[in-house]
Structure formats: C-alpha cells, structure tokens
UniProtKB/TrEMBL annotation:
Superkingdom to which the source organism belongs: Bacteria
Protein name in the entry: Uncharacterized protein
Organism per entry: Paenibacillus campinasensis
Amino acid sequence: MKVIEPLGRRFFWVKSTGNIVAQRGEMAAGIESTKEEDFAVYVELKPYDPDAIEMTTFEPGQYSEEFATASSWRFNPDTGEIEFAYPDPNAPTDPPVYQSPLTQQVAELKSETAALNLAIIDVWETLAAGGGA
C-alpha cells in the first residue's frame, strides 16, 4: 500500500558527468514513486537510457540551507555526492567552485576539533603528570 507522506527533493543525473537532467522539489504530501514510474512521467528523462541516469532522493529539509544559498549544484560522478557552488561577491565572474554541502563540512570540522581537543587534553595531562620530558 502506498503512503501519503512529505517528499524530499529528487534528482536525476547523468552518471558519467554529474549533470542534473530532471528534478522534483520538496512536497508537503505525496506518494513516493519508483525510478521506472518517473521515467514514464518526466518528459526530460525520455531521451536517456535509464541505466545512464542515477536517481538521488533527499529527506524533506535535507540541505535546505544549501539549496537556499547556493548558486548551483551538481553531482560528483566519481563519488555520487551532491556538490554546491556558492556565489563569491569578490569574484562574481569566476567559474563556480563546487564543494561538499556546508552542513557536512561543519559537522566534519566539529568532529576534527573534538579530536584535537582530546589530543591537547591528553598532552596536557601527560605534561602535568611530569611526563614527556
């Protein structure tokens, strides 16, 4: 039985290039469809071989800040991960530089900072105990 539920963004992108060829925005309520069903409905997908297209679906609200602030996005064909380009007011004519989602970068930095803090505490405790000399 199909369930009516909030639906997150969905992207169809070319596996070899990462270029997005079709997408669905977030929906407050809907019934999730399969890749095969979407290929039958989306006109943009008709010229493509389904095996050449990857489908990625996000949770509702996932990367909402990135989608609101980024100037463009694509998928990295090597990793299959979404990448965002953010406008640079100091160099508006430069080509976009794609990077992993900022929320992901912040989470990684927090994790690295916590690990470094633990290492600093360990060194501090070793020195305070008279070791390390």
